[in-house]
Structure formats: C-alpha cells, structure tokens
Design goal:
Layout lengths: L6 H15 L9 E7 L17 H9 L1 E2 L9 H10 L28 H7 L4 E7 L18 E5 L19 E2 L2 E2 L8 H22 L6 E6 L11 H7 L6 H26 L6 E7 L23 H4 L4 E3 L1
Parallel strand pairs: 1-7, 1-8, 3-4, 3-7
Antiparallel strand pairs: 2-9, 4-5, 5-6, 8-9
Helix pairs in contact: 1-3, 5-7, 6-7
Length: 319
C-alpha cells in the first residue's frame, strides 16, 4: 500500500491548494458539499449492482471526475482522522480502533484539521452533519471546538438509526454541544439530509441580504451503511423487493434512502441557483462489511482487512 496515497490526504491537499492558488473574493469560492459514507462496499451502488436504486449518485458519478484508485485505512476512526488531518493515522497513534467509546483518543488538539483551515485561512463557514467519531471525552475534542461552526449528529462510531442509542444504551445525538432528544424515533439518514437542506436554505437567505456571505463547507457524514441494518420498510418495498438476501435487501434500502436525500438536497441547490458554484465530493471511510450484507465484489476482503475490499473505496468529484 506504500505507493498508493490515501485518497483522503489527496483530497484535502487538492481543496487547499486549489483555493489558495487562485485567491478570489469569498463569494466566488465554490461551496463544498462533502458526502462521506460509512462502510459503503465497492458494490453497494447502482452503477455496480443493478438491484440497488441510486440514480442520483449514479448520475453524478457518470458526469464527475472519478478517483479509480482511491484508498483509505480499513476502519472508520483512522480513516476519518486521516481525512480531517491529512496525516497518516499511525503518526498520531490512531491506527486500529483507537477512537472508541471507552477511549479518550482523538486527533491531537495541536493539529490543524480541515474545517479549521477552511474557516480560518480560506473564509468558509463550516458545518458537520452526521457522524463525528473523532473524540468526545473533552469539550475541546468535539466538532464545534475543532473548526465546525455547527454540528448536528452523534459523537461515537455507531448508533441505532431510530432511537439514537449507542454503546451501553447511551443516547447520542446533539445539536452543537446540546443533547437533542427531539429527534428520537426519526431515521438518521432522513434527519441528516433534512439538516443539510436547512443549511442550504439558510445560506440562500443570507446571500439574498448580504452579498459577502461566506461560502459553505458542509460535511454530510451519513451513518449509513454502518450496522445496525435498519431502514423504513417503504424503501425496501419500492426499490429492493427483488433482492433475495435479507441483509443485502436492507443495505439496498439504506442506500435508496441516502440517494433520495441527495436528490432532495441537489434539487434544492438547483432551485436556489447554487449548483454552478458547487463542488460535490463523494467517498466512503472504508469498504463494506459483507457479514452485514455489503458487497465488495470483485475486490477481495472486507472492512477491517488490508485486502482491497477493505481499503479501496468509491470516490468522485462532481461539479
């Protein structure tokens, strides 16, 4: 794996170098929607498995710039640490599964991470929607202390997508620093998509009254397709009834819910006249877990392994 750069490190470098190379007024910098999937397998998308319903993702992929050799660490925590910091996770002691519910591990506070750079040096407003998984034991480790202007989501590695209960049945859902119990019972993918739409509406309203409104960087960090496998039944009934394997059928429904959310978000961006100044980045933090119904075919291996099924991910940019 040595000659293959981490895709996440490359993307961070690309963002920053492009923005710095051509300084222009803040309103002319592209808005960035960074879609980060969780445990999405190589085959968990419509353009590789015709039984999966992902027309929005398929369309952006077909028209976008594809990173066909895009690699990550094989676990969620190290991958996200690399993405945010641009540093190999083992240089920060974050390899393996260091960032977990029983650990105080986090990206070292002395390291500048992506949202801080975009906010402080390049004049972006920055928002995290969804999964964080980069430290929570100290207030200083949490998203709004690490460069994000707002946070709507959860701290740990996974949770029940309806109850939002995490390890040891602890409730884990926040708006900025505050525990948000008003969303209990609502499906995570829907909540994250709708929060992103809200941010787009707020940006458009601000732009109408203030031409110097800062461009936005929204990291839309879906918890799908991470276990536990759950999705509202209508996604399965409408799009996945022909998938025979039970776990894979639910994964199909989970991806259909993500795709619907991205369609609604991009429809809003089009309606608000914001697509021309938008860069969409789509990737996953690692490969899929075939024991939970994901597919990495024809790649060998699984999440948590160094075979390509664990570390090679679907990545593209669309504008």
């Amino acid at each position: 794996m040595a000659p293959k750069l981490l895709a996440s490190t490359f993307l961070v470098t690309c963002f920053l170098s492009c923005a710095v190379a051509q300084p222009v007024p803040a309103r002319k910098k592209p808005n960035i929607l960074f879609v980060l999937m969780d445990d999405m397998g190589w085959g968990d998308v419509g353009f590789r498995d015709s039984q999966f319903h992902t027309p929005t993702i398929d369309g952006m992929y077909s028209q976008g710039v594809r990173f066909n050799n895009s690699y990550t660490p094989p676990n969620c925590g190290p991958s996200r640490a690399a993405l945010l910091s641009g540093v190999y996770p083992w240089r920060m002691g974050l390899q393996g599964n260091a960032i977990n519910s029983g650990s105080s591990a986090a990206i070292p506070l002395g390291r500048t991470i992506l949202p801080q750079k975009l906010k402080d040096d390049l004049g972006y407003q920055t928002h995290l929607v969804g999964k964080w998984h980069q430290g929570f034991c100290k207030t200083e480790q949490t998203p709004t202390e690490r460069g994000f202007d707002s946070f709507f989501g959860f701290y740990l590695s996974k949770q029940d997508p309806f109850s939002h209960l995490s390890k040891k049945d602890a409730y884990d859902f926040r708006s900025d620093h505050e525990v948000n119990r008003s969303v209990a019972g609502q499906y995570s993918t829907y909540l994250f998509s709708e929060r992103t739409r809200q941010l787009v509406r707020e940006y458009k309203a601000s732009l109408a009254s203030n031409a110097d409104t800062k461009p936005f960087f929204i990291m839309l960090s879906y918890s799908a397709l991470h276990a536990p496998n759950q999705v509202p039944q209508h996604y399965i009934d409408q799009h996945c009834a022909d998938v025979s394997d039970h776990n894979r059928q639910i994964k199909c429904g989970m991806m259909a819910a993500v795709d619907e959310g991205l369609k609604n978000i991009t429809d809003d961006l089009k309606a608000h006249g914001l697509m021309d100044d938008l860069l969409v980045v789509f990737t996953s933090d690692d490969g899929g877990d075939h024991e939970e119904g994901s597919s990495n075919w024809p790649l060998r291996g699984n999440k948590r392994t160094l075979w390509e099924g664990g570390i090679r991910v679907t990545t593209f940019m669309y504008s």
